[in-house]
Every structure is written in C-alpha cells, then in structure tokens.
Amino acid sequence: MRSKTLILAAASLGLAATAAPAKPATPPAPDPRDAEIQALKDEVKVLETKVDALEARAAQAATPPAAPPVVQTPAPPSFPTAGGATIVAGRPSIASADGRFTANLHALMQLDAADYAQATPGPVASDLRRGAAAADTAHARDLSSGSDFRRARFGVDGRAFGDWDYNLLLEFGGAGEEDAGHVQELWVQYSGLRPFHVRIGAFAPSLGLEDQGSTSGSLFLERPAAADIARGVAGGDFREGAEVWGGTDWWYVNAAVTGRVVGVVNSQATGVAQPFDAPLGFLGRLGLLPVHTGLAMLEVGVHSSYVERPADTGGPDTPAGAARYAITLQERPELRVDGTRLISTGGLDARHLTEVGFELSGELGPLFLQSEYERFRLERLDPVAGAADPSFHGYYVEGSYILTGERRRFNTATWAWDAPSVDHPFSWRDGTWGALEAALRYSDVDLNDHPGAPGTAPGRGAVRGGDQRIWSGGLNWHPNSFVKLMLDYQDVRIDRLSPSATTFSTPVGAQIGQHYHVVALRSQFAF
Questions:
Q1: If DSSP codes are grouped into helix, strand and coil, which group holds residue 9?
Q2: What are the residues facing 2 on neighbouring strands?
Q3: 0.90 cut: is pTM over it?
Q4: CB-CB contact of 93 with 87 (8 Å)
Q5: Within 10 Å of residue 130's Cβ, how many Cβ atoms?
Q6: CB–CB of 510/503 below 8 Å?
Q7: In the structure, what pLDDT confidence band is assigned to residue 61 with cuts at 50, 70 and 90?
Q8: 143, 115 in Cβ contact below 8 A?
Q9: Helices 32-62, 2-18: inter-axial angle, 10-degree rounding
C-alpha cells in the first residue's frame, strides 16, 4: 500500500504542475492538455492494477505452501515401525524406534467338546474292542465324551539386533486331559543370510504341509493320522534340533538334525524317562510353486526323515527278548477329546527308520485341495529269519470351499497353508458374517505288515498295527481373524487283528477293531 500511495501522490503533483488557470472568455476551444491529463489518469489506473498484482504475489510468496496429502503405510503385522507398543490385528507388539528389537505377545485357546456314538460296551470276554496297547482295553470300549482344552498356549516372539529372531511358547493343553505346562517351542534363529535362516532350540522342523500348517488355521480339529505319524519319526512338537531353511515366493528347502523331545509331565504325572542315549535323526524338505497367479496356486513337494540312531530306552540291562532301541508307530483317531490310541505297531527293536512323503496342494479361487502320501520302512536291529523288514504307509485327501468367497493364504515362511483372510468380519449392525468354510477329508493309515488271516496267530515278523480309515466333514466359521468355531463329524473304522491272544485277552487272531461316529465342536481364539 505504501508504494501505491507514493505513485498516486506523484501522479497528482504531475497534474497540478501541468494544469493552468482558465481565462474568462467565451467558451474556449478544446484544450489539448485535457487529453494529456486523461492519459495520465489512465496510466495511474494501470499502475494501480500492477501494484495490486505485485502485492498479491508478495503475500502468496510469504504464505507457506499447503502440505501434500499424507499417505499412511500400514505397519507390519509383527511389530510397530515407529517404536513403542501397539496392537496390530489384535496382537500386542512392542518395538524399539529403529525396529531392531521387537517382542510380540501371542496366545491360543482351543476348547474341544465331543460326543462319541459307540456300541454299548459289553463284558471284556465278549466285547473284543481293544486299544493300541492292552492297557487301553476299557477306554477303547467306551471312549470318553466330554471336553478338553486341546491347546492353551502363551508366548512371545520377536527380533533382536535386527538379524536375530526368537520364540518362546508354553503349552498347557493336552490330549484327553490337560498336561502340566511345558515348553512347546524355544529357539533362536539367525536371519542375516537371507533368503536362508539358521535355527537352533526346540521346535517342529519342517516336514510337510500338515506338519507346518498353522494349528489355528487347520481345516479340521486334528491333522490326518498319516501326517501326524510322519512328523513324529524325527521331528514333531518340542523336538530339540538345529535347522537351516530358506526360500522365496517360488521355492522352499530345509535340512535339520534332531535329537530327543523336551520332557513333558502329563495329567497322570507321568514324565518322559531319560534315555541312555538320545536319538539322532535327519530331515529334509523341498517345495515348489510352479503355478502362482492371482486366481490359482499349485504346490508340489517332497520330504523325508531318517532315524540314524533310535533312543536307547532299555540300557545295558535290557532283558533278553525285550526291545532296547524300540520305535513305535501309533496314532489316535484324529480327535483328542479322548486320548486313547487304537492303532499301533508296538515297540519294534530298530536299527534305522526311513520316512518319505510326497505333497500336492493348490487352490482355484475359494476352492482348496491338499494331499500327502507317507511311506515308512523300518530296519530291524535283529532281522527275523524268513521275514523282510516291515513297511507301512498312509495318505489323506482333503479340501474345502469357502462359501463367502475368501481364499486360504499360503505362507512361504512355513511353506504351508493358513486360514483364509476375513474380508468382512462379523457385525450384527452392518449385516456382515465373516468367512464360512465347508471341508471334507478322507484319510487312511495302514500299520499292518503281513498280518495274516483272521483266526490265525501272527507269523514270524508279522506286525498287526491296524488299518484306520476316517471320513470327516466339517464346517468352519471365522467371525474375524481372532475367533474361530469348528463343527466336525467323523466316521471311523478300525480294522485290526489281535497281535497276541494272551496279551490282549482275546481269541487267536480275533478282530479287535471297531466302527463308530463322533461329533465334535471347537471354540478358538488366537492372536
């Protein structure tokens, strides 16, 4: 405004200086100086316009420019990037400001309830249904309907110094009855050699799809029997060992050396006896994703485990004829509300045991399919004359269709499938229902080797472990990523000849298997 005032004042002085007083006379002729005055006035107006424009431009330059829109990048699910404490997807996390140190709290509760539909138990002399061992006779005839905390886990995992990962997980659940609290996982891992990682501690080394599949994202309440037996050969839960693994979005490979499992005290206050020598085993797995598109995925893989040295459970004073290096393959019928096993090879004195498995899985939109085949071959410590070393096998085929359109997620770190994402969490107010999944499975595991004919005694080297076949159907509801409800139905058939008339209190070669149905429900929350 000051510059504008000065220009106007100068223009006024110029007008005053050039104007002359008029003479009294007849109307004068047009004075040419009038035109000059008008021109000066026009110039003043132009100058005023220019001054206004300059002042507006100066004011705009003095004002800070508006900040561009802020684009917020979601924090990683495992820890907060800015440090401090957060809850991401219901999971509490703590992190340092630089993200090099993290701690993530997690928990899992699975409460199972089941109702077994069996024939009414009769006298032991006429009701010949038996369990895996002779001591299971009563329970095999009357499986326990009821409830059980299958899993009750609490733990913390995270990162230290950027390249070191760790995990501590405690378990208070059990099969049939809850166990005393024990270590489920306890390991440390170096991840500075990506895409490879080195892990040591107690954990389940990678051995197949069901072995590595998330227990909170499983299709059914339990793993298929064949896969569960395979993971227990040299791996499985709370196994001590060391592992090297690596992979990308297209491939996965691992190799592990393992020893004993962490000691567990069960609900009967029975613990794991210390062996005279711990077992020594080796595992490996290779997986590929030859098809990986926005609509479809296909996974193929192979895995194997080898027991180089079975545990020395007998010691130097093992009685003659008893198994010093016993290996037992056995399994429950894919449900743990009752913990009774119904098939078992019994303790076989072994030098080595080899397991080989093949895996195939994939999805097409909301349709999911998965299958694994397992084969076991045991090398006896003392070969039986005229008998080959026993071999066993099992497989399963399972699939699901997500009625609400979501898809199961493939985890490249575990190389296994996880629960579907929940696109529209349950909300009564909004009319959304979460994810609903229908599932079907058939599994078969055969622990017989040259079992012989019914009504006859087993031959030399024969193994009458039993053949277990199960049809399962299920409906899984995921209201959100935190809660899951599962309803399962099973049709179970056990075909097994009595391994010993004396031990099992049966006629020679009697059928000790059974056929029953069971309905089970699981209530779960996990973070």
A1: helix
A2: none
A3: no
A4: yes
A5: 30
A6: no
A7: very low
A8: no
A9: 170
